[in-house]
Write a structure and sequence with these properties.
single chain; alpha+beta; Beta-Lactamase; 2 domains; 6-stranded antiparallel sheet; 3-stranded antiparallel sheet; 49% helix
């Protein structure tokens, strides 16, 4: 019998997930609307999160992320063993490809940037550690969709349709891209996430064959010809094997 989960704790993290660079502050009304709870319950959660330092009230009724979250984020960046393991590998491959490279890990909200190496170019594309990539418009997201359980994949795509992020026609095209990623062993993004930005992603499997990470190279879409994408995929696949061999079991 599975251990029952703590619903209040899950709800607290759902509230924290409402914060983003585009929405740095939330109110009880925001929480109540987004999570379908009463305003009084939303207020109680916000006050409790403020009490433990996860949130701070910046003005009457408006909250932003607090010092405790910032502290935990810094600790996670410094001590995450996978990030430490993958950093020298992606730095080397970035230098070789002359493109920025990142490692990603699947979360409930999408693919989070675990580590990044910026291309040694006068003008290059950057992404911050902790940045969340949406599944349906990123090369890494499509790759995760290609490898997760079909039932979970269907649920995630259905949720994207219900939230208006994906139309039925776009979902149909996405299924084709997922099939292609399964066949080719890599996935591409051609300006879908950010205009004029292209990316190629490959999987990193552990000893059991489970997908642990994804690696992607990204840069100006004008450089990402089919030939360049194939070259990137081959180099990333080699790097992925290095990371796979080093992942602790």
């Amino acid at each position: 019998m599975a251990t029952p989960l703590n619903g209040s704790l899950i709800k607290a993290f759902e509230i924290l997930d409402l914060f983003s660079e585009q929405k740095p502050q939330v109110s009880a009304a925001d929480v109540a609307l987004a999570l379908e709870m009463s305003p009084s319950s939303a207020h109680r959660f916000l006050v409790t999160l403020e009490e433990v330092g996860a949130l701070v009230q910046v003005r009457r009724g408006a909250y932003s992320l607090g010092h405790h979250i910032e502290k935990l984020g810094r600790i996670a960046e410094r001590t995450n063993p996978l990030a430490t393991l993958v950093q020298p590998v992606i730095a080397q491959i970035s230098s070789r490809l002359n493109e920025s490279v990142m490692a990603g890990q699947l979360t409930r909200e999408g693919v989070v940037c675990l580590a990044t190496a910026i291309a040694p170019r006068p003008i290059s594309v950057n992404i911050q550690v902790g940045r969340m990539l949406e599944l349906h418009v990123s090369a890494q997201g499509k790759l995760w969709l290609a490898h997760i359980d079909p039932e979970e994949r269907s649920t995630r795509i259905t949720d994207l349709i219900h939230t208006g992020k994906l139309t039925q026609a776009e979902a149909h095209r996405l299924h084709h891209e997922i099939d292609r990623a399964q066949q080719d062993g890599f996935a591409c993004n051609r300006g879908e996430s950010e205009p004029d930005i292209g990316a190629v992603a490959v999987p990193v499997f552990d000893e059991t064959g489970a997908l642990r990470l994804t690696l992607s190279a990204f840069g100006m879409a004008s450089r990402f010809s089919a030939q360049h994408e194939a070259r990137i995929a081959a180099s990333l696949t080699q790097a992925a094997q290095e990371v796979s061999n080093a992942i602790p079991q």
